[in-house]
What does this fold into?
Amino acid sequence: YDIELHVLFPFFFEDIIDQDERPVDFAESLDIEANSKAIEKAGQADGGKGGAFFVFSSDNKLVIKTLTEEDYTTFQKIANEYHSYLSSNPNSLISRIYGIFVVKFTDSYQRILVMKNTLYGLSLIHI
It folds into this structure.
């Protein structure tokens, strides 16, 4: 198979990662062997809204999901405000998007969004 991976807006997302007080190690969280069962399981599911592929990394620190054209267009419209908000509110619980990637296959492509799981490591109190 011929597969290409393209990183969209690398400097934009690099800045978001650099501002994160507790960034996630991509190589560790996205290790193929550690995530193979989660990927296989996600491939068998119906997906999220609109049939999106949606999976947590094996360590639950990252969320990976496919983006529809509509999702991608919406993100492009709000990207600057999103970045400004996170810069001004470093403790915000809004998920930090760590990257948008395009995976190109021989005759198709898929956009993938990788974001930090905001709830990872939080102790939740049930009332």
About this structure: The CA atoms of residues 16 and 120 lie 18 Å apart.
